[in-house]
Design a protein that fits this description.
about 600 residues; alpha/beta; 20 helices; 20 strands
């Protein structure tokens, strides 16, 4: 007969658990202020729900630097003797959970019943004085050092409510400083609907006025924008807010998304993938995360915001929100509000719109590629980097005769030199998002993008022409070089007789093969790359395009053999210098080009008498 399994209850080391929860639950001890104000708020909410004669809610935070104490006072529901044991002194239990189970959670913040533990992080002793609205003639004094043990004793009768007094540890005495305390409360509690006062009720509440989206007073558009920017400036730590955009409930298709708030565009230049997203999230009026940037689109690296999203679920520490279905819905809502706000800005505020384009042009190039609506909005307004400066694509099209040219990512190539001589803008493909943005714009316009340095692009720029066999043979004899293919062509300007252009696709193939030999490239990437380079069959390292319309080349064909050879050597040397190919494999060096030019000039010049 097999032995019977023994059912044993799990043991809990209460002291160890208290130390772990109190010392490791929160990222900063400052959170104690938020947690205790949150408890006071929920106590006031409970009294409003259960006591028909409840007075107007009041929360008071009192620092006492001389005594080294911090007190949080409220006129909420208070606690009975039984509730002290059941809720205050029981980890994981809270009265808010009971109210939520009964369906009465309107305005309640707490959820896990562990917020009070934060008091032990900063204190040597915690004292709590409370009177319940249910037993207004009874007052109780709770006291604990460390939270593992506590005492409860009757206390002198007081007004209904609770006063928590923290005897602060030496290292946390700065929490007694009133300006420091006000700054903390404004950060964490500025959206709470109940008034919160520091030091005394006669001082202005730190959470007034309400956030712009809760404003009930009618303001002029100018005044409203001023209030919104002032609110945004309290949260934007690195940049001035350029303008603000509202987040409104029901912005997503199907009326989804219940968050409210404010977004702003930062008045600071961004470059490509700069990520300066800055989003603070409040749940039920309390700051939960100061860096919820994932709720903003990845392309919105120039956007900040404050969001009030009660549908989101805080983590146990209440310093972040859970990534769940509600999170995804809220992110979708924020994206829709941002795109809608940008569209309104373009229609209604042209000066700010132009400033936005100026500040964030490069980042917006990438943003436009992420959303078709953004692309439609920005397609003709954004500028791309070209050899003729930053230009809009309609301007590029006009200046290039209806065609679009793009580099291969290496600026200064001979094809670009030629285009620069003609005043034809060439889009710099090496810059962030410039080429894919240009291609998408061209596709909408039904235009090809001629990428210089590729066989297809160069074939359009230097169209091959057929010469008489004798002429073609003479050119071959005059200009033949190892690894260079001669291509008779016709291009502008006529003053340019020839252009030496590297075959960059062949260069890419050679580079990949060299990297594979040196094992500098992964097998998976190498396999994909070789799928492309397998189509590259050209053995030429460069192509020499000969302009048959050039007077120089026509004169050369008609010149005597010896002079033609000298002239061809001179032209080849000049062409090498212009092509910047002295460092490319197989190309003539600058030194040999200069030697050829010198020898050609000596042969062409008459000898001295």
């Amino acid at each position: 007969m097999s032995p019977v399994a023994e059912l044993v209850r799990t043991q809990v080391d209460l002291g160890g658990l208290m130390r772990v929860l109190a010392n490791n639950m929160y990222s900063t001890p400052e959170v104690v202020v938020r947690e205790l104000v949150q408890n006071a708020h929920d106590s006031c909410t409970r009294r409003r729900l259960e006591d028909t004669s409840a007075p107007e809610a009041r929360i008071l935070v009192v620092p006492d630097a001389a005594a080294g104490t911090l007190s949080i006072v409220d006129n909420g529901a208070g606690l009975t003797r039984e509730e002290i044991d059941r809720y205050l002194a029981t980890v994981g239990a809270g009265y808010t959970g009971r109210l939520r189970a009964a369906g009465s959670d309107a305005g309640l913040i707490g959820q896990f019943g562990i917020g009070f533990l934060s008091a032990y992080v900063v204190s040597t002793r915690v004292d709590l004085y409370t009177t319940s609205f249910q037993t207004p003639r009874e007052a109780w004094h709770f006291s604990s050092a460390g939270g593992e043990r506590y005492t409860v004793a009757p206390h002198t009768a007081q007004d209904v409510g609770t006063r928590v007094v923290l005897q602060l540890s030496e290292r946390f005495r700065p929490l007694c400083d009133a300006p420091t305390l006000e700054a903390l409360l404004q950060r964490y509690c500025c959206l709470l609907p109940m008034a919160i006062h520091v030091s005394g009720p006669e001082r202005p509440a730190i959470n007034r006025p309400p956030p712009p989206w809760r404003e009930t007073e009618a303001h002029s558009p100018l005044r409203r924008r001023s209030l919104e920017r002032a609110f945004a400036a309290r949260f934007e730590r690195r940049f001035e807010p350029l303008c603000t955009l509202p987040v409104t409930p029901g912005a997503t298709p199907g009326n989804g998304g219940s968050a409210s708030g404010l977004l702003w565009l930062q008045d600071g230049a961004t470059y490509g993938t700069s990520d300066n997203r800055n989003l603070s999230v409040f749940v039920r009026g309390m700051l939960v995360s100061r860096d919820a940037r994932e709720l903003l689109p990845e392309w919105a690296g120039f956007v900040g915001g404050v969001l009030e999203a009660d549908a989101l679920t805080p983590t146990a520490s209440r310093e972040d929100v859970q990534r769940d279905a509600a999170f995804d819905v809220t992110a979708e809502q924020v994206r829709e509000c941002l795109i809608d706000g940008l569209s309104r800005l373009a229609r209604e505020d042209e000066p700010t719109w132009r400033l936005l384009l100026q500040r964030h042009n490069e980042a917006l190039l990438g943003a436009a590629l992420c959303d078709e609506r953004l692309f439609t909005l920005l397609a003709d307004a954004l500028k791309v980097p070209t050899t003729e400066g930053d230009l809009t694509l309609p301007a590029v099209r006009r200046r290039s005769g209806g065609r679009l040219h793009a580099s291969t990512g290496e600026s200064g190539g001979p094809e670009e030199v030629l285009c620069r001589a003609l005043g034809v803008p060439v889009v710099d493909s090496g810059r962030y998002a410039a080429l894919p943005f240009t291609r998408r714009w061209a596709e909408r316009q039904g235009l090809p993008v001629l990428q210089l340095g590729t066989r297809e692009g160069n074939a359009a720029l230097f169209p091959r022409v057929q010469l008489e066999p004798a002429q073609e043979e003479r050119l071959r004899v005059l200009f033949a070089q190892d690894g260079v293919e001669l291509v008779p062509s016709r291009f502008s300007p006529p003053a340019l007789p020839l252009v030496l252009v590297p075959d960059r696709e062949a260069e890419l193939k050679a580079k990949l093969e060299a990297d594979a030999t040196a094992k500098r490239i992964g097998a998976a990437v190498l396999s994909l790359a070789r799928g492309f380079t397998a189509t590259i069959t050209s053995r030429a390292q460069a192509r020499l395009y000969l302009n048959v319309d050039a007077p120089t080349l026509q004169a050369l064909l008609a010149a005597p053999e010896d002079r033609a050879r000298s002239a061809a050597r001179l032209l080849s040397g000049l062409c090498t210098l212009l092509s910047h190919r002295d460092e490319r494999a197989g190309a003539p060096s600058v030194a040999s080009a200069l030697e050829g030019i010198s020898a050609a000039l000596c042969a062409l010049l008459p000898p001295s008498a």
